[in-house]
């Protein structure tokens, strides 16, 4: 099981040569409705032991040595004491003090996720806090997070669920007043006082989509999305892929998957996905300097379509409370089981934000028909993305906890 143990010091020097990001990214348009991936198999569950050792254990802790930051970091080279807490295994508890930011207070939430502004006025779904079974995780502290990101570049790479998470992080950080904030070009965000930049690269498959004029597109299973190479020396890289590995989003595998010059006439999505993940893993292992960069992988977020699928009029409206009975949760996605196997074979230490279970409970967290545009009752619903504020806030809480624990030594109480 993945546990927050053996995390040691996460720190590094900001590169002197890093230039600010100014690239515009290709926006894969209209990811309005993502795909409900049928989680079928749940058998491969292997006992994995992810290594959470720090790639930064012998460098100067550039962000940690500042008494005014109030963050208690341990010195370098210290192996972190273990804890038996899996912070991703737990339940949601009602907490009046949530959400962290107001339902219409953050201007950087895409229309598509702005459920409150789009007319969703039941607010109970905002009042839950993730409670691991074995320990507590700290509430997101924007000031501490900013300190940890001082002089750093953090880059999200993935599908529109990454956009969900990225915007949630920006909204969290904006709660910390006293910083200048600038919206750079496209999905680039820059916090001037902290010289911190956060970017989002839209790469729904992680590997390269290949479109020739007047030709049907293919997906290059053997090539990483090209934009990513510009960001390989970021301090934090947070990857994900998942919802697009669906027969319908990939031409049912017919003449869609390509390796080298070969376009496979009929490849199953499972085979293609595994190949793509291996391409990603290899890219990370050969391109990421682990002294500088900490790699994260954010897991699969469950969808909650009722009475149909994403493309067959499935719905999730009128869901105003989470699932409470764990037995009713969807089984752990095979996509993530494959991912766990791939990560276990990598030489780069990857922190896996295993959010799948926490999302499985939250049938109440999707935009459903409050997904922007004209409110069309009876129209197509979004039961894949999440309202903001909302569930992706907890992913940033996991990110925050991981950074904090990896910096200060997994000081969790059981
Ligand atoms: C991730 O969470 C799932 C479901 O809660 C669990 O089955 C799986 O073992 C976890 N993976 C790791 C690596 O801990
Ligand atoms: C800002 O941070 C970058 C690294 O992300 C660094 O290269 C640059 O020198 C920093 N600029 C200032 C003004 O501190
Ligand atoms: C850590 O730093 C010390 C001196 O600061 C050096 O002697 C040692 O070789 C370094 N270890 C690694 C693994 O870089
Ligand atoms: C951290 O700060 C302390 C006290 O201000 C100082 O003695 C120490 O050298 C600093 N360490 C680093 C790595 O900058
Ligand atoms: C410590 O943080 C404060 C603000 O929180 C900042 O003004 C100061 O420059 C920082 N010092 C160092 C050495 O980073
Ligand atoms: C999705 O795929 C299934 C089977 O692969 C097919 O029956 C269905 O018609 C597809 N839906 C769309 C919108 O293409
Ligand atoms: C494509 O592969 C699927 C599953 O492997 C198989 O059921 C189907 O018959 C194949 N179709 C063609 C045209 O080869
Ligand atoms: C890796 O990053 C560290 C810290 O930024 C740097 O000192 C080192 O030269 C880098 N190694 C390579 C091979 O680029």
Automatic annotation (TrEMBL):
Membrane topology: Single-pass membrane protein
Location of the protein in the cell: Membrane
Pfam families, sorted: PC-Esterase, PMR5N
Domain Trichome birefringence-like C-terminal: 137-401
Chief localisation class: membrane
Residues covered by the Trichome birefringence-like N-terminal domain: 84-136
GO MF: O-acetyltransferase activity
Entry GO CC: Golgi apparatus; membrane
UniProt KW Coiled coil keyword: no
Transmembrane portions of the chain: 20-37
Keyword line: Membrane, Signal-anchor, Transmembrane, Transmembrane helix
The keyword Phosphoprotein is annotated on this UniProt entry: no
Family in the record: Belongs to the PC-esterase family. TBL subfamily.
Entry protein name: Protein trichome birefringence-like 4 isoform X1
Organism: Spinacia oleracea (Spinach)
Underlying gene: LOC110775105
